[in-house]
What we know:
Blueprint: H1 2-46, H2 69-73, H3 99-136, E1 144-150, E2 161-164, H4 171-180, E3 185-189, E4 193-197, E5 213-214, E6 217-221, E7 227-232, H5 234-238, E8 247-253, H6 258-261, E9 264-267, H7 273-282, E10 287-291, E11 294-298, E12 329-334, E13 356-360, H8 366-377, E14 382-383, H9 388-392, E15 410-412, H10 417-421, E16 425-430, H11 433-446, H12 454-457, H13 461-483, E17 487-491, H14 492-497, H15 499-509, H16 516-524, H17 545-564
Parallel strand pairs: 13-15, 13-16, 14-15, 16-17
Antiparallel strand pairs: 1-7, 2-4, 3-4, 3-7, 5-6, 8-12, 9-11, 10-11, 10-12
Helix pairs in contact: 13-17
Amino acid sequence: xxxxxxxxxxxxxxxxxxxxxxxxxxxxxxxxxxxxxxxxxxxxxxxxxxxxxxxxxxxxxxxxxxxxxxxxxxxxxxxxxxxxxxxxxxxxxxxxxxxxxxxxxxxxxxxxxxxxxxxxxxxxxxxxxxxxxxxxxxxxxxxxxxxxxxxxxxxxxxxxxxxxxxxxxxxxxxxxxxxxxxxxxxxxxxxxxxxxxxxxxxxxxxxxxxxxxxxxxxxxxxxxxxxxxxxxxxxxxxxxxxxxxxxxxxxxxxxxxxxxxxxxxxxxxxxxxxxxxxxxxxxxxxxxxxxxxxxxxxxxxxxxxxxxxxxxxxxxxxxxxxxxxxxxxxxxxxxxxxxxxxxxxxxxxxxxxxxxxxxxxxxxxxxxxxxxxxxxxxxxxxxxxxxxxxxxxxxxxxxxxxxxxxxxxxxxxxxxxxxxxxxxxxxxxxxxxxxxxxxxxxxxxxxxxxxxxxxxxxxxxxxxxxxxxxxxxxxxxxxxxxxxxxxxxxxxxxxxxxxxxxxxxxxxxxxxxxxxxxxxxxxxxxxxxxxxxxxxxxxxxxxxxxxxxxxxxxxxxxxxxxxxxxxxxxxxxxxxx
Length: 577
């Protein structure tokens, strides 16, 4: 009896172990299957919307799939759209492209865009961190450490140029940036901010008060709270070319009283461009003005705005400054020094009563417009998204909650009734869709400042991208025209060509006042740090004829909608090609 009981007990133990093993195997298999399905969904999302998901536009039809549903229910002949173009007729719509399908499709596109933005931003973070680890070991401090100094933002001594990098700032990076612009001193604060100048701060502080570690270099000190770690970088300048970053601005009529117009001057018998530029750089002025043997330094002002250039022949001997135009005209050069009259920015001291959007399709110049608005008004702009790369470069409103109302306006690429009606008013920035699509594709594959490779353009991603995003360009504008409460429409091309008038219009819309000199400062720093660098392909045409036909129909629809709301139509360069 005991022997039989023992055998039964042994069998039950084996069965228990077997059941445990089978349960564990079942759970593990289920987990693997779930992970595999999740990965498949992510991969499908990362490939973008496929061609058969794109908003369709039948051949010969203007605006099908993006027009107002009320218009779709009652098709009628379209009025003349662009000057010199024939009127187009809209045939009846297929049931598949009706209003209900349109609303559902636009909702799907918005969800796809949101997932794509958050995925893109999160992907950028590890890439930036990895690149940073590689550079921290090669950085060497070539300048001479001077000491720790007090930093007063209201009376800052090192104000010749200002740079931010909240992820990659190192001592060498700051020194090189200041040396490139011909400054003598480089100061670092808060572990991430770099300031340049030619004079030391007045108040020295205790060495231990500079205790902030550099964001991109462990073990190195980059100032502290209201404290600057200052380095002398003249050793770096010795190996640099003296005329580096000196840009010829043109020939201009000299003001009547040069000494009143320009704060600093120098008279030299054998004056050269290098001598004048070096003198003005040491005085921390962005303009070097040469008239004969005279060198003047200053800023663009109302007296000397650099808007009315003269014929270059009137400045005789542009290569030989000593013979410039018998006193009536002068040569103007841009020194490496940054114009800092408009670089100070802060958050609003009280919450804004009007919630303003800065809305655009991706790739339409929203970041550039934010740069202009921030420098013109002196207040940060916010963002519906968080882009770490922009925050690291000084757009501090990126980390502020987009509904905090502490920023002058909020960047958004969203469309749709709910998203639009959250805002009281909006600046709607529109850019040529051909340029916008290329800019956004470049950003997707090479970041804010790079260019996509030939391999990217020739891949299946590009046609899928155009099919999905071209309809978004049109529906974005149409939705804001329909649901926006108070709109200011700005065309990117007009802003680029007539910067000060258009920027003044934007500032007034934001209920702000700004001086003429500050606007001239913004114009002098118009590109900021967000102009694409690198080799740009010349005479590159990525659009097939089928793509052009698709986008052209969207252009006609948007132009008609703008004119229907009494806004200026699209610029002539948008005319279908």
